């Protein structure tokens, strides 16, 4: 953790915060933040499709071909740009969405592919790279955000990590926003908690005797104080989607994923830098089409309502929405009606952050014989996202263990998506 | 009054006689390896146990030289209980139980720590824990490729080897050179974990990277892509090492050596080019005969090659003291051994047949392990004091050590293979979930940085802590509330169970006052509060 922020915390003080800001509405904090900075920091919302969605049943349909199977394509708001059926609502929002249809990678294993997609680097035993959300939190000022600025909703098997930037940049893991937040609320009456915390001083004093400098260096007590600020922060209300009008909740869909998308929007409003909303279950080695039909019933309303809502609130320009999984699926349909792992031509969708929408970058061969046209590397997508949130991808951080300088991203932004 | 309660009172009163059946020294190591296997050769424990006096004296002298050179002041000796806590955390992954504290205090003063370490080394729990720690170095923390990688088999094999104190050189030889199926010959999982779907075979370069870091203490893989600007290593060195694994294949017969088809792309011609196996130094001791992996293994475990001993000593030192003797742990600089402490330990390790138990005993007997983490100076030990091992370093506990300690603090009896199945079940399932939420440190074993907000939240409000401090049958706070006859004794027992020490006079007075005149649920609640307070201290979450 950085010491600058600890000093900030001391100034404000835990009790002062509890007394003054307890009832401060979320909006007030947002206004506060906007006031202090003319160019507010930007955010990323990652809709993570764990398991690896099929490009053919999502963003890159090839109807009436052998590879396409019997998946139908639907028209969208942009002429000539098609999505797979099931994306009827996203089709209306396609004007703000860029489809990259020619993703290539060398990682066909779930864990390694996830690492590559989330960090922009291939797994490397010499260093653990930070995920893109951790990079944003590291590079952008803390501001007035008391809650963790990197959040993972409905966390899957491999949540985004801080890597060499440190565990304090790991995504804070929460479940379905309709449930209770894990570990954040004490089940005890306030006075009993206060009594326990008071007792803590007695024991800490005894331990610090003869080792004060060492104990201070652990920052244990500072981190604990920050955790307690978070426990009483009004910003926690951002997780509570039940206060949203019914019409809004309905638009996002009555699913954990839909609620996650809605919470993501609310979290971005209070200064959270990266929210990962997980929708798993795409590893369709069997019954690929049925699985994708069902998954899209949650993805389509959540994704499209999020884009519309962000745009309505003038947040889309400073929020990059990414929809991706660790790889795509084979054009060939196997004997069990499934598709297997595929890294040579799969799709990622990007929206917001001032990126161009309503277009497709690259293309795959309908017969799946030729390599994709205009192949795009994962690191190039990272460089594009980082640029869109106002960071310079070639900036370097030093990995502490090896002293090796490592760029935020080793790729180059996609010129097709950056507005002139 | 149930059996458990009688047992508990025995513990409380220090009634050693009632506990002799559970005394760890009486437990026999469980030997499961095949006696016909030449690798199953064991060392005479008795011989190894007590002849470390000379090497410990030598290490202590070098530690003194190191301190003097930097004008550091040695702290006084740590209490025996503090050393017991360190040893238990390092070797068994949790703080000692109240039961074990009582056993420990029944041992003769002055000999307690040595005998406690002997007991730990004979304990299956310790072998299991060390096996997990070493496994991270060999195969990482990834789940690994489906079907061809069996982590559980691998760690069980390693645990057996550690328990019977198989020479470390034989363990390493098995890892590098074993043939066969990953189920029957679990050491081959070292190779199969790098199995790559695209090529359908283990990856020679990932194997070379692991080999150089784990067994040589060199990051040769930094030269994987190009010659390293600041190091001696060239890309050709790395590729030469990888070529030893160039013929390794996996099929229905398991891991075996076939034709070498390692052909990395040449930097100048951009063409795949065959590379011959070659070691980066000491090529005169590389055997001419044998399969490539057997030759590589022989070269690594040859006592004339000092790297295996140095890498292992550095890692075991870090396991015991929380940070390596020389940093970085897996890239030991040639000039990075002030006063020759590492060299002295490494020479002794190699000269005694790579005896891991002896190495652990030696380091744990050295002043660096036995010294206090506090000092007489106003602010306590300085950076120089800590750097020169004049004071024991404060290091953050690993997630599974925190989880293990929480369970242990919440139950009076020792958890592990000998404890009732219910307790063990809770420890494993709750423990894993806890570790997941706490955030594993992955392969970066000795990350010196501080904790995180989610970790503090988890210890303040998490289900595990709540259930441990709730008034239920299996936790120590309720037991103490029910059983401890006097307030002072109840507070002392809580401190021993959670912090492995007795309260100071000020602490005792503070908490005894709270308990005065309380009964029943009120008393239980106050003790639950005390438990919460103790597990949320710096002292609980850090090794010291």
Describe the protein's architecture and organization:
The complex is a heterodimer of chains A (420) and B (544). Chain A has 420 residues and is of the alpha/beta class. Chain A contains 13 helices and 15 strands. Chain A has 2 domains: 1-35 and 194-236, no CATH class; 41-177 and 240-407, Alkaline Phosphatase, subunit A, CATH 3.40.720.10. In chain A, helix 10 packs across helix 11 (256-269). The longest helix of chain A has 25 residues, at 288-312. The model of chain A is unreliable at 1-37 (pLDDT under 50). Chain A is globular, with a radius of gyration of 22 Å. Chain A has helices spanning 3-12, 14-20, 26-36, 88-93, 110-119, 132-139, 190-208, 212-218, 220-231, 246-252, 256-269, 288-312, 378-388; strands at 43-48, 73-75, 82-84, 97-104, 150-153, 172-174, 274-278, 319-324, 328-329, 341-342, 344-352, 359-361, 376-377, 396-399, 404-407. Chain B has a domain at 125-301. In chain B, strand 3 (248-251) and strand 4 (254-257) form a beta hairpin. In chain B, the strands form 3 sheets. A two-stranded antiparallel sheet of chain B has the order 1-2. Chain B has a two-stranded antiparallel sheet with strand order 3-4. Chain B has a two-stranded antiparallel ribbon with strand order 5-6. Chain B has helices spanning 3-12, 45-50, 53-69, 80-92, 98-105, 112-121, 124-139, 151-163, 168-177, 189-192, 204-216, 235-243, 292-301, 307-321, 341-351, 356-365, 367-370, 383-387, 399-409, 421-438, 453-461, 463-469, 476-483, 487-499, 505-515, 520-535, 538-541, and strands at residues 195-196, 201-202, 248-251, 254-257, 395-396, 542-543. Chain B is an all-alpha fold and 544 residues long. The longest helix of chain B has 18 residues, at 421-438. Mean pLDDT of chain B is 83; it is low at 1-46. Chain B is built from 27 helices and 6 strands. The chains are: A alpha/beta (420), B mainly alpha (544).
């Amino acid at each position: 953790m950085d010491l600058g922020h600890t000093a900030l915390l001391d100034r404000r003080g835990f009790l002062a915060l509890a007394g003054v800001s307890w009832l401060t509405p979320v909006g007030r904090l947002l206004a506060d933040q906007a006031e202090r900075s003319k160019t507010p920091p930007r955010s990323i919302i990652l809709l993570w499709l764990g398991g690896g969605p099929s490009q053919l049943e999502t963003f890159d349909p090839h109807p009436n071909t052998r590879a396409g199977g019997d998946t139908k394509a639907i028209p969208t708001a942009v002429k000539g740009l098609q999505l797979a059926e099931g994306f009827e609502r996203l089709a209306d929002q396609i004007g703000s969405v860029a489809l990259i249809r020619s993703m290539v990678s060398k990682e066909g294993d779930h864990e390694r592919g996830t690492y590559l997609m989330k960090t922009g680097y291939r797994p490397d035993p010499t260093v653990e790279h930070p995920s893109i959300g951790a990079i944003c939190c590291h590079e952008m000022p803390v501001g007035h955000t008391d809650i963790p600025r990197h959040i993972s909703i409905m966390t899957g098997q491999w949540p985004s990590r801080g890597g060499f930037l440190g565990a304090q940049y790991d995504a804070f893991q929460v479940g379905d926003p309709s449930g209770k937040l894990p570990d954040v609320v004490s089940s005890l009456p306030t006075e009993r908690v206060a009594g326990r915390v008071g007792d803590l001083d007695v024991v800490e004093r005894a331990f610090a005797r003869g080792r004060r400098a060492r104990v201070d260096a652990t920052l244990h007590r500072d981190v604990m104080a920050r955790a307690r600020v978070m426990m009483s922060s009004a910003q926690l209300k951002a997780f509570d989607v039940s206060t949203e009008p019914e019409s809004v909740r309905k638009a996002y869909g009555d699913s954990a994923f839909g609620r996650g998308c809605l919470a993501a929007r609310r979290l971005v409003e209070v200064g959270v830098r990266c929210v990962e909303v997980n929708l798993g279950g795409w590893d369709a080695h069997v019954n690929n089409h049925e699985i994708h039909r069902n998954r899209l019933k949650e993805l389509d309303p959540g994704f499209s309502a999020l884009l519309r809502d962000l745009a309505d609130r003038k947040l889309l320009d400073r929020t990059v929405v990414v929809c991706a999984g660790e790889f795509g699926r084979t054009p060939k349909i196997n004997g069990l009606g499934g598709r297997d792992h595929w890294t040579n031509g799969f799709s990622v969708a990007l929206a917001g952050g001032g990126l161009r929408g309503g277009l497709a970058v690259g293309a795959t061969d309908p017969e799946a014989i030729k390599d994709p046209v205009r192949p795009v590397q994962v690191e190039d997508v990272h460089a594009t996202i980082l640029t869109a949130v106002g960071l310079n991808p070639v900036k370097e951080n030093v990995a502490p263990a090896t002293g090796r300088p490592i760029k935020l991203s080793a790729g180059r932004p996609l010129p097709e998506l950056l507005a002139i | 009054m149930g059996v458990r309660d009688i047992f508990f009172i025995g513990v409380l009163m220090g009634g050693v006689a009632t506990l002799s059946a559970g005394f760890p020294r009486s437990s026999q190591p469980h030997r499961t390896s095949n006696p016909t296997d030449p690798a199953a050769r064991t060392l005479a424990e008795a011989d190894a146990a007590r002849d470390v006096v000379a090497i410990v004296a030598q290490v202590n002298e070098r530690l003194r030289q190191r301190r003097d050179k930097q004008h550091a002041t040695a702290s006084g000796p740590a209490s025996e209980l503090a050393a017991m806590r360190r040893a238990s955390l390092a070797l068994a992954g949790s703080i000692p139980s109240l039961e074990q504290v009582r056993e420990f205090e029944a041992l003769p003063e002055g000999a307690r720590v040595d005998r406690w370490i002997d007991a730990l080394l004979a304990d299956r729990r310790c072998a299991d824990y060390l096996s997990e720690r070493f496994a991270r170095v060999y195969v990482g923390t990834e789940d690994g490729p489906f079907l061809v990688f069996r982590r559980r088999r691998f760690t069980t094999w390693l645990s057996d080897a550690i328990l019977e104190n198989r020479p470390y050189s034989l363990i390493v030889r098995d890892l590098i050179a074993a043939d066969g199926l990953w189920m029957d010959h679990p050491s081959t999982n070292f190779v199969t974990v790098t199995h790559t779907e695209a090529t359908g075979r283990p990856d020679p370069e990932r194997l070379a990277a692991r080999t150089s870091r784990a067994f040589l203490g060199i990051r040769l893989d930094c030269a994987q892509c190009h010659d390293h600007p600041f190091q001696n290593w060239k890309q050709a060195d790395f590729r030469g090492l990888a070529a030893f694994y160039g013929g390794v294949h996996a099929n229905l017969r398991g891991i075996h050596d076939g034709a070498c088809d390692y052909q990395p792309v040449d930097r100048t011609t951009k063409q795949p080019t065959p590379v011959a196996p070659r070691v980066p130094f000491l090529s005169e001791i590389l055997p001419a005969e044998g399969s490539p992996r057997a030759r590589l293994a022989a070269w690594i475990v040859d006592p004339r090659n000092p790297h295996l001993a140095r890498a292992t000593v550095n890692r075991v030192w870090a396991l015991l003291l929380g940070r390596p003797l020389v940093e970085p742990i897996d890239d030991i600089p040639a000039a990075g051994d002030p006063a020759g402490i590492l060299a002295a330990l490494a020479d002794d390790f190699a000269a005694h047949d790579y005896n891991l138990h002896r190495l652990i005993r030696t380091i744990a007997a050295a002043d660096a392990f036995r010294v206090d983490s506090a000092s007489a100076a106003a602010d306590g030990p300085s950076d120089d004091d800590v750097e020169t091992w004049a004071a024991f370093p404060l290091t953050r506990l690993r997630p599974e050590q925190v989880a293990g300690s929480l369970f242990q603090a919440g139950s009076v009896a020792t958890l592990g293979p000998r404890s009732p199945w219910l307790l063990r079940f809770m420890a494993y399932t709750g423990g894993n979930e806890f570790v997941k939420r706490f955030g594993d440190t992955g392969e970066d074993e000795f990350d010196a940085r501080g904790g995180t907000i989610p970790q503090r939240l988890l210890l303040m409000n998490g289900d595990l802590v709540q259930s441990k401090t709730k008034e239920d049958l299996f936790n120590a706070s309720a037991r103490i509330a029910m059983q401890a006859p006097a307030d002072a004794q109840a507070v002392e027992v809580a401190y021993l169970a959670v912090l492995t020490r007795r309260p100071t006079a000020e602490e005792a007075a503070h908490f005894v006052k709270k308990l005065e005149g309380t009964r029943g649920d009120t008393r239980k609640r106050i003790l639950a509060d005390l438990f919460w307070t103790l597990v949320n201290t710096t002292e609980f979450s850090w090794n010291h």
